[in-house]
Amino acid sequence: MDYRISLATQLSSHLKSLRSQQGLSQAALGKLLGVGQVRIANIENNPGAVSLDQMLSILHLLGCGLSIYKRDEVKTATGKPDNDNKPDW
């Protein structure tokens, strides 16, 4: 399943859900990543404060990856461009 995320804050719930789907506690994921449970909790609560390298490692351990797409080329089921997920930058 694809999750379209425009802001780091949107990633928080997805990380927690993906970890749970893998049957991993924060401590177990931390052990796989080489960090402590507190670090995983911090990453899940503030995913914008983690390095891209560490985020990619976490996504890999959770069986996921990162895709980059051009927003104006993404279409909804109606065939119209999806302009609802634009960040406020």
From TrEMBL:
* Domain annotation HTH cro/C1-type: ranges: 15-71
Q: From what superkingdom does this record's organism come?
A: Bacteria
SUPFAM superfamilies named among the record's database cross-references: lambda repressor-like DNA-binding domains (SSF47413)
Question: Coiled-coil regions in this chain?
Answer: none
Instruction: From the Swiss-Prot or TrEMBL record, give the protein name.
Output: Helix-turn-helix domain-containing protein
Q: Which organism is it from?
A: Undibacterium umbellatum
